[in-house]
Automatic annotation (TrEMBL):
Occurrences of domain VOC (ranges): 5-113
Protein's name according to its UniProt entry: VOC family protein
Pfam families: Glyoxalase
Alphabetized InterPro entries for the sequence: Glyas_Bleomycin-R_OHBP_Dase (IPR029068), Glyas_Fos-R_dOase_dom (IPR004360), VOC_core (IPR037523)
Tree of life domain: Bacteria
Length: 117
């Protein structure tokens, strides 16, 4: 049996240029161009669609998680980019978490799990 490996996610939006610029600034400042944004081998595809609203009305339905090795560095990068924190960075029994949103209202989360979790 073949095991499926997620390789990309498509974010549908009514304003692809703005959303692509935000993602580049927040998550991949070195990325250039209009193609998929490479997030460590996982591709983020941003596409204009006419079957979505301008704002995500149910952002908690799917949260894009980023597991990070250097939580402090990523948090600083996100703060410098001016992200809006939905759930501020906090230590939990299983690790550190912080949840923020993109301009379309989609939720994203950075996570650093504890070794023993």
């Amino acid at each position: 049996m073949t095991t499926l490996k997620p390789g990309s996610i498509l974010l549908g939006t009514t304003r692809p240029a703005e959303l692509r610029d935000w993602y580049r600034k927040a998550l991949a400042p070195e990325h250039e161009g209009d193609g998929p944004i490479d997030l460590g081998g996982f591709l983020l595809v941003i596409e204009e669609r006419d079957d979505v609203d301008a704002k995500n009305n149910e952002p908690g339905r799917m949260i894009l998680n980023f597991h990070v090795d250097d939580f402090d560095a990523v948090e600083a990068q996100l703060r410098a980019a001016g992200v809006e924190w939905i759930v501020p960075v906090a230590d939990r029994p299983s690790g550190r978490f912080g949840t923020f949103e993109d301009p379309d209202g989609n939720y994203l989360q950075i996570i650093r799990f504890k070794q023993d979790s």
